[in-house]
Amino acid sequence: MNITNSKGFVVGITGASGAVYGVRLTENLLSLGFPVHLVISNAGWRVIKEELGWDVTDREGVLNQRFGGLQGTLEYHPIADIGASIASGSFRTHGMIIMPCSMGTLSAVANGSSDNLMTRAADVMLKEGRPLVLVPRETPLHAIHLENMLKLSRLGVRMIPAMPAFYFGPQSLEDMVDFMVGKVLDSFGIDHALFRRWGE
């Protein structure tokens, strides 16, 4: 895949625990100069408030405060805006990442349910043959979760569970978050220095 900065990525943040993953992914993509189309579910906003302590009463304002000044451009799309650009297959992007991905969103994508912008954008990736990466964040997993992941994996969806490694000697929670973000960037062939690779 030829990655250039001319086309952007769609990033989804759901209500699964681990909102920091999606935030760090967005920061890194923007820092690398990529346009980012960001969709956050209502439950995702709740988790951002609870886990990160953000004041989410002014959603666009807090995003501008957090991501303003980075090299890439950020476009926030409300979850109910089913007519947004990313809902159409004619709008070209490099792909989509849902990080973290709740089991509810994963189930909707696996079963072709696209009643909000996030699941519609994911459906567009599938129908257009574009890369779709899901970062499931749940434990323990039951058979329905696993069957939905297998179904999507067989369709070419990349599953990158939020399972940070320890071989690179993480010294902080941030190191472990960056490892997962780095694995997502690896899946698109994007160079980064977020963790020390085995053998380096």
From TrEMBL:
<comment type="similarity">
    <text>Belongs to the UbiX/PAD1 family.</text>
</comment>
<feature type="domain" description="Flavoprotein">
    <location>
        <begin position="9"/>
        <end position="187"/>
    </location>
</feature>
<dbReference type="InterPro" id="IPR036551">
    <property type="entry name" value="Flavin_trans-like"/>
</dbReference>
<feature type="binding site">
    <location>
        <position position="183"/>
    </location>
    <ligand>
        <name>dimethylallyl phosphate</name>
    </ligand>
</feature>
<keyword id="KW-0285">Flavoprotein</keyword>
<dbReference type="InterPro" id="IPR003382">
    <property type="entry name" value="Flavoprotein"/>
</dbReference>
<keyword id="KW-0808">Transferase</keyword>
<keyword id="KW-0637">Prenyltransferase</keyword>
<protein>
    <recommendedName>
        <fullName>Flavin prenyltransferase UbiX</fullName>
        <ecNumber>2.5.1.129</ecNumber>
    </recommendedName>
</protein>
<feature type="binding site">
    <location>
        <position position="41"/>
    </location>
    <ligand>
        <name>FMN</name>
    </ligand>
</feature>
<dbReference type="GO" id="GO:0106141">
    <property type="term" value="F:flavin prenyltransferase activity"/>
</dbReference>
<feature type="binding site">
    <location>
        <begin position="15"/>
        <end position="17"/>
    </location>
    <ligand>
        <name>FMN</name>
    </ligand>
</feature>
<dbReference type="GO" id="GO:0016831">
    <property type="term" value="F:carboxy-lyase activity"/>
</dbReference>
<keyword id="KW-0288">FMN</keyword>
<feature type="binding site">
    <location>
        <position position="137"/>
    </location>
    <ligand>
        <name>FMN</name>
    </ligand>
</feature>
<feature type="binding site">
    <location>
        <begin position="102"/>
        <end position="105"/>
    </location>
    <ligand>
        <name>FMN</name>
    </ligand>
</feature>
<dbReference type="Pfam" id="PF02441">
    <property type="entry name" value="Flavoprotein"/>
</dbReference>
<comment type="function">
    <text>Flavin prenyltransferase that catalyzes the synthesis of the prenylated FMN cofactor (prenyl-FMN) for 4-hydroxy-3-polyprenylbenzoic acid decarboxylase UbiD. The prenyltransferase is metal-independent and links a dimethylallyl moiety from dimethylallyl monophosphate (DMAP) to the flavin N5 and C6 atoms of FMN.</text>
</comment>
<dbReference type="InterPro" id="IPR004507">
    <property type="entry name" value="UbiX-like"/>
</dbReference>
<feature type="binding site">
    <location>
        <position position="167"/>
    </location>
    <ligand>
        <name>dimethylallyl phosphate</name>
    </ligand>
</feature>
